[in-house]
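note to self: dont lose this again. the chain is below, predicted strucutre after it. 489 aa total, dont forget to put it in the shared folder this time
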Amino acid sequence: PEPAAAWQGELDATQFKRKCPQATSSEEMHDLEARSRREDVEDCLYLNVYTNQVPGKCKVHMAVMFYIHGGSFRVGSAHDFSPNYLLEQDVVLVVIQYRLGPLGFLSLQDESIAGNMGLLDQLLALKWVNKHITQFCGDPNKVTIFGQSSGAAAVSFLMASPLATKDLFQRAIIQSGSGLCDWAVDYNPVEHAIRIAKKVNCTSTKIKEISECLRKASPYDIIIAHSSFLVIIIMEGQAVKGTNGGNHAVIQTAGKNKFLIEDPKISFETGNFYKMPTMVGVTKHEGTFFLGNIYEYILERKTANNKRPQLDDFFTEVALKFSGIEDTTGAISDVFKDKFFQQNEMGNFTAMIPGLVDICGVTLLKACTLKQARKNSKYNDTFLYTMNYLGHLTKFGYGEEVNYPFPGGVAHSDDLIYLFPYSKGNLSEEEMVVAKTMVELWSNFAIYGKPTPATGVFEWPPMTNNFGPYLRIDAHNAIRQNFIDEYTI
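---
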């Protein structure tokens, strides 16, 4: 990405700009197809700045909260995150957009399509904030980057990137994800790019020719090809660990600006990352999101019912494969079955649901998020949490009507309902109390580097060992000592 040029006169910033091209509803895809013929649909690198002071007439310069949205690096936009709750505190909120899917992450590991374009967009947005945020009453020396799901992975990528400098951000909040999760990095980017390219009729075997062909293809055609590729991968039960390509970070071997030069797992293991105060956490039922994918794309097609004893091993094996865990001997499956199921539940999908939710949640999010917290806590204050409050609103299904034989619970992304107003409904009185608490914890951390700086109802201490202490956020908050307790619901 390149910095935007200056302009003369006034800029109309009263309307949201278009979201970055993405595979969403059929209506939006038809619109994208039409616009691709007449305009540059990739002109989408905009950010929203929200402040409770009058720009240019600042009484004080406030801490900045820089939000990176999730959505598997495939979907999402800055429009989706309203500032109403967070601006009750003395912070400036910045919500960014970045290129998504293959337009932001496809990599042929060559100079033309090197990969990590979406991450470089995020870095450029941080540089913009560093240069201009004082005009909006923000303090460029007090910037907290925070993100959820793939946005959380992006936060940890920024901490590990050699291109990120200490003047750009000073604190981090990592919600339900990490660059240490197996799904975060594409370990076979060229193979995946070639498979996707073939679906756009770029059939050469030479990287340079494939690159030239892709650059001539329309963004619409590339996104459609990528979506088709992902459906095949998911139906094969291979959703993570380097098999889900075209929309994840890569360890670059080409390109002028290499965002990642080594596996983030190595960076955090060896201490080769930007160390800072960090908040890290998950939601209680992270696994329902992934179990929903497994049920929709795999189990329904292979008759997940409650009547077949031969399914004793099938459900566990599918969950492990989807999580990217190789279990050639069956030993891991046996350990997981002993940990997460009763013997009389085996083969009964309904009875196995809580255990399957646990397996998906632990293997795909909770364990890698805890690992992120552990690595950071060696060097700096790290505040660990789990969001366990069950309200009447949920992001389970992301607005779509889902017909799964299990509830979402405190699902993946439900924590966002209490940080950003949710369009699907209003919070109850009790839920508003939870939202107020979370907003204060998040903004206090951005302002002071601690979520509970003053003596209040409770004190949230930083981690002192590999398992805690940690905060369990609920109608009645509690400090707990062993985060492994959250591995089972």
